[in-house]
Write a structure and sequence with these properties.
Elements: H1 40-58, H2 64-76, H3 81-84, H4 89-98, H5 104-112, H6 114-124, H7 127-148, H8 151-175, H9 182-193, H10 197-204
Helix pairs in contact: 1-2, 1-7, 1-9, 5-6, 7-8, 7-9
C-alpha cells in the first residue's frame, strides 16, 4: 500500500537562503557519542571541498560548469536537516523498508525543498556524478567519526562506514569502469594519515 500523507501539508514551509545561517548551529551525529558536535555547515563545506577534489580526479573530462553544479549541490544537500534533524542512516533504511519505497522523509523533503530535490534528481541522472558526491559525503562521515567518535558504539559505526564505503567504491568500479574510483580511496587515506602533520610540524619548529 502506497504511503499517503494525511492532514495539512507543509506548502507554506519552503527552505531557502534564509535557512542557510541556521546550518552554523544545527548539529549532526545525535545518536553517536562524540568529542565535539559537527555542525551542518561544517559538513556541507567539507563535502563540497571533497566533491571538488574528486570531480577533478575521477571525472577529468567534466566541464567546469558541471563541476560547479556538483559543488553547489554539496553545499546545500542536507539543508532539510535544519528542520528534520540528522536521522541516522539505519533509521532511514528501516523507514524505507517499512514504507516499501514510499518514504515519508522523501515526501517531506519534496514539500519543503522542491528545488533541492530537483537538483538531486538532475544529479542522479548522471550516475558518475551522483556516486562522486556520495563518496565525498561518506569520506566526511568516516573522517569525523574516526577522529571524534568516543566508545565502542562509535568504533562500530566507523567500521560500518568503512565497509559501506568500500562496497560503494567496488560497485562503482563494476558499473562505471571508465572512471578512476580508486582516487576516492586515495583521498580518504591521505586525509586519515596526515590529519595533523602540518600542525605538529609548525608547532615543533
Amino acid at each position: 500500500m502506497a504511503f499517503k500523507p494525511k492532514g495539512k501539508t507543509m506548502k507554506n514551509i519552503l527552505l531557502g537562503i534564509k535557512d542557510l545561517a541556521r546550518t552554523g548551529h544545527v548539529t549532526r551525529w545525535h545518536s553517536v557519542r562524540v568529542g565535539r558536535p559537527q555542525t551542518l555547515a561544517e559538513h556541507h563545506y567539507l563535502v563540497a571541498m571533497f566533491v571538488n577534489k574528486l570531480a577533478k580526479d575521477i571525472l577529468p573530462g567534466l566541464s567546469d560548469s558541471e563541476r560547479l553544479k556538483m559543488v553547489e549541490y554539496a553545499l546545500w544537500h542536507d539543508l532539510p536537516e535544519t528542520i528534520c534533524g540528522d536521522l541516522p542512516s539505519p533509521l532511514k533504511r528501516r523507514i524505507e523498508q517499512i514504507c516499501l519505497g514510499n518514504n515519508p522523509i522523501d515526501i517531506i523533503e519534496e514539500q519543503i525543498a522542491p528545488w533541492l530535490v530537483k537538483c538531486k534528481k538532475r544529479l542522479q541522472a548522471k550516475p558518475e556524478q551522483a556516486v562522486t558526491v556520495k563518496l565525498a559525503d561518506m569520506i566526511d562521515a568516516i573522517l569525523f567519526i574516526e577522529q571524534e567518535g568516543i566508545g565502542k558504539h562509535a568504533q562500530m559505526v566507523a567500521r560500518q562506514l568503512r565497509q559501506h564505503f568500500s562496497e560503494k567504491v567496488a560497485l562503482a568500479q563494476k558499473e562505471l569502469p571508465l572512471f578512476e574510483w580508486d582516487k576516492a580511496v586515495a583521498l580518504l587515506d591521505e586525509l586519515m594519515s596526515g590529519y595533523e602533520d602540518n600542525k605538529m610540524l609548525f608547532e615543533g619548529n
